[in-house]
Specification:
153 residues, mainly alpha, two-stranded antiparallel sheet, 2 strands
Amino acid sequence: MSGMKSVPQPKTAALGRGGVPTPSTPDQRNEGGPPAVRKLLSSVVSGLDRPLRADDVASAVDRCLPLPDLVTCLNPLCDNKCSWPKGAGRPREYCSRSCRQSALRTHARLTDEVMLIEQVLAQGSVRYTDRVRLEAHAAQARWCLRRYPTGGE
């Protein structure tokens, strides 16, 4: 590939789970020179030496990290995106009704598994090797449960 010039690729914003920008996300709209680092809302208004007013916060919103218009579905097993509504209306948390139902069923199944294991372990007559396996499974199920919301759309 000698003789070919490499084309600079556009930089993309670093987004965390759910499409939320990370605090070090550069402002991609600054086209004259290096990108300016946008700040969190709390750090923008913290420099004021007087009590906060609504107009202070409203003007600071334009100078802080932008909120995403598109986020990942709340079902941890789904990579589809949900968008912020253009007009009035409640924002979607799941990409579809079936995805929401799947997430709620998985949450219920994991909760049942943890409860069953806790009941068996509470009996006290469990062999050591079984106890270790059951405690590990319950710990992993609790870890998975933290990724599933309990309510929903």
